[in-house]
Amino acid sequence: EPRAPPENIAIIGAGIGGTSAAYYLRQKFGNDVKIDVFEKERGGGRLATVTMQGQEYESGGSVIHPLNLHMKRFVKDLGLSAVQSPSGLVGVYNGETLVYEENSWFIINMIKLIWHYGFQSLRMHMWVEDILDKFMRIYRYQSHDYAFSSVEKLLHSLGGDDYLGLFNRSLLETLQKAGFSEKFLDEIITPVMRINYGQTMNINGFVGAVSMSCTDPGLWAVKGGNKLVCSRLLQASKSNLISGSVMSIEEKTRTKQTGNPTKVYEAVYQTGSETHSDFYDIVLVATPLNRKMSNITFLNFDPPIEEFHQYYEPLVTTLIKGQLNSTVFTSRALDEFDLGTILTTDNPDLFINSIGFVSSVEENNNPQPKADRAHVWKIFSAGPLTKEQILKLFVSYDYAVKRSWLAYPHYTPPEKCPSIILHDRLYYLNGMEVAASAMEMSAVAGYNAALLAYHRWNGHTHMIDQEELYEKLKTEL
Ligand SMILES: Cc1cc2nc3c(=O)[nH]c(=O)nc-3n(C[C@H](O)[C@H](O)[C@H](O)COP(=O)(O)OP(=O)(O)OC[C@H]3O[C@@H](n4cnc5c(N)ncnc54)[C@H](O)[C@@H]3O)c2cc1C
Ligand SMILES: CC(C)=CCC/C(C)=C/CC/C(C)=C/CSC[C@H](N)C(=O)O
């Protein structure tokens, strides 16, 4: 006889991980289960906008890859629409000069790339494509309801030992072994890692490939703001959003209406100055577990649940409406300066990771140059910019807003991903970020945790950690 569904489920965190988990849990367990989603700050988490002169701009997660199929599906199913992300010309600045500059003519670009770096850029493209192709297998596994109990097992199922090896070795080591030159790594690959993850090539090879995939054409965003996906997922999952900070989780035994003593989790949470508690059959933690970001204590577990110390990289996003001082980067006249994004090499004297012009969340594709030449530029830097630093970059500016983040894990391979199963019915999604942090990765983690919770509740062990899945599913429609 099938087991009755759980009575209630708690999800901690209303970012894309938590809300996608809510959406899939509702699909799996049906309408009778009560789902509470706790959020201590803003729904959307690291998907957020800032407002400048009445227009909203993405300040956190902004671009989505054309092959991010969960995000694509959400937008379609939730009645949202997509806008193309700006795709201006890119230059690379080393603190003294532009060491590489894209050209608007495809053919000239190709010739320039081959002239500077031989065929390494083509080889790099093929390397990333192969990793992405294998990554796409996850969609097939998930559409057949298969789940994984650890991130390592999930990565292994995508491409075996070599794929898992990517995660265990640094990008630098992987690409050096593959014969890429120092010049190419310093001038092209490192700058891409700096804009995307604020780090060097010491990050793991898998996140390195995810980061490189951001150089593919066709990046997009959600019209009105990526965070809309989270609020729509919550709505569609008919979950209750509780504005409160979960402080602790403890396992307790309760006697339910059936008269049987049952193990449940007590979540103690704070809303304003009040402390409350509720009991749940299943709990999903959808936020990075560390003191600075979530501060959740697991009380009286035997054996104890490990303490998490994953260090997240501080990053500041600054949006500035102003006229760029192009002479910082090149001696060419301003009206000949046509770069839309400037990446930087790993030079300790540089105070920015990147600067690029951006569109508002309502605009499609490239923003039009304004008559006064004032664009909105987005700058990523490790720390807040001083007024002097801003004045070095801009001839003039009328508006600046900043947002500080603990943005992504600090990647130091080889490292171990935290377990997805923290306890019997207690799951953790954000260990996935140790492999790579991106919206789609959190959506994959949300779906996986929902499937895992469902199968473990119902004793469907054959749907968890199946080996050779790719071969097994080859003949399935
Ligand atoms: C500046 C920046 C740029 C980025 N750019 C991109 C990009 O272009 N493309 C891309 O794909 N990804 C990008 N990312 C990464 C992407 O935004 C994240 O990987 C993703 O949004 C993480 O989602 P999440 O739901 O797992 O976590 P989060 O969004 O962090 O959600 C966790 C939520 O839990 C809440 N919470 C924490 N503790 C508690 C508690 N105790 N009780 C209740 N609630 C709690 C938090 O307030 C938060 O809202 C970027 C990130 C940053 C910071
Ligand atoms: C998960 C897979 C296969 C692909 C995701 C690719 C992707 C969109 C990664 C995002 C990487 C990231 C954290 C980018 C941050 S900066 C983004 C952008 N350049 C900006 O200027 O905001």
Q: What kind of assembly state do the chains in view correspond to?
A: single chain
Strand order of the largest sheet: 7-6-16-17-18-15-19
Shape: globular
Distance between the termini: 29 Å
Beta-sheet strand percentage? Answer: 25-35%
Q: What is the number of helices?
A: 13
**Mean pLDDT over the residues:** 95
Low-confidence stretches: none
Q: Say how many strands there are.
A: 21
- Secondary structure class reads alpha/beta
**Rg from alpha-carbon coordinates:** 23 Å
Q: Quick one: biggest sheet?
A: 7 strands, mixed
Distinct ligands: flavin-adenine dinucleotide, the ligand CC(C)=CCC/C(C)=C/CC/C(C)=C/CSC[C@H](N)C(=O)O
Q: Percent helix among the residues? A: 25-40%
Protein name: Prenylcysteine oxidase 1
Domain Prenylcysteine lyase: 101-466
InterPro entries: FAD/NAD-bd_sf, Prenylcys_lyase, Prenylcysteine_Oxase1
Family: Belongs to the prenylcysteine oxidase family.
Describe how the helices and strands are arranged.
Elements: E1 8-12, H1 16-29, E2 34-39, E3 49-52, E4 55-58, H2 69-77, E5 82-84, E6 89-93, E7 98-101, H3 106-117, H4 120-135, H5 137-143, H6 151-168, H7 171-177, H8 182-197, H9 205-212, E8 220-222, H10 227-236, E9 240-243, E10 245-255, E11 261-271, E12 274-280, E13 282-285, E14 297-299, E15 312-324, E16 339-344, E17 354-357, E18 375-381, H11 387-393, E19 394-409, E20 421-423, E21 426-428, H12 439-458, H13 469-473
Parallel strand pairs: 1-2, 1-13, 2-9, 6-16, 10-14, 13-21
Antiparallel strand pairs: 3-4, 5-8, 6-7, 10-11, 11-12, 15-18, 15-19, 16-17, 17-18, 20-21
This protein binds flavin-adenine dinucleotide and ligand LLCL4O7M.
